[in-house]
Amino acid sequence: MSTRASKDLETFENPRPERDYTIRIRLPEFTCLCPKTGQPDFATLHLEYVPDAKCVELKSLKLYIWSFRDEGAFHEAVTNRILDDLVAATAPRFMRLTAEFNVRGGVYTNVIAEHRADDWPTPQAIHLP
Question: Quick check: is 55 catalytic?
Fold first, then answer.
């Protein structure tokens, strides 16, 4: 295979750093291993963020997500680790990662982790008629 899993997250300069805008990325093929049984856990990751100076490059994000396939991790730990790594790489104004794990033993798990820059004011919702 010409591409391999990697923990390296590449970024590029935000083309409109003066504007708040939201980037939404859906990653339906996340896999890690249950740390108790070694069986695979599957999830869909929903990443939403308001970039500041940098945006995450999508191919590197895909390879980063692939890098968890052979790692054992609790759902809560892996979700927060991914968010921490993305925040470290991009330093966004706001970032939310929602991990929707598939059913295991009759139990669905959703983990939602957020980061907000200290100096970023929360925008007010606008409701149009």
Answer: no
Catalytic, out of 20, 34, 52, 85: 34
Q: Which of 41, 85, 118, 119 is catalytic?
A: 41
Task: Encode pLDDT of 3-12 as tens digits.
Answer: 799 999 999 9
Instruction: Tell me the per-residue pLDDT of 63-87, one tens digit each, with 9 for 90 and over.
Output: 999 999 999 999 999 999 999 999 9
> Is 34 assigned a catalytic role?
yes
Q: Output the DSSP codes for the chain.
A: ------S---EEE-S-TTS---EEEEEEEEEEE-TTT--EEEEEEEEEEE-SSEEE-HHHHHHHHHTTTT-B--HHHHHHHHHHHHHHHH--SEEEEEEEEEEETTEEEEEEEEEE-TT-PPPPP----
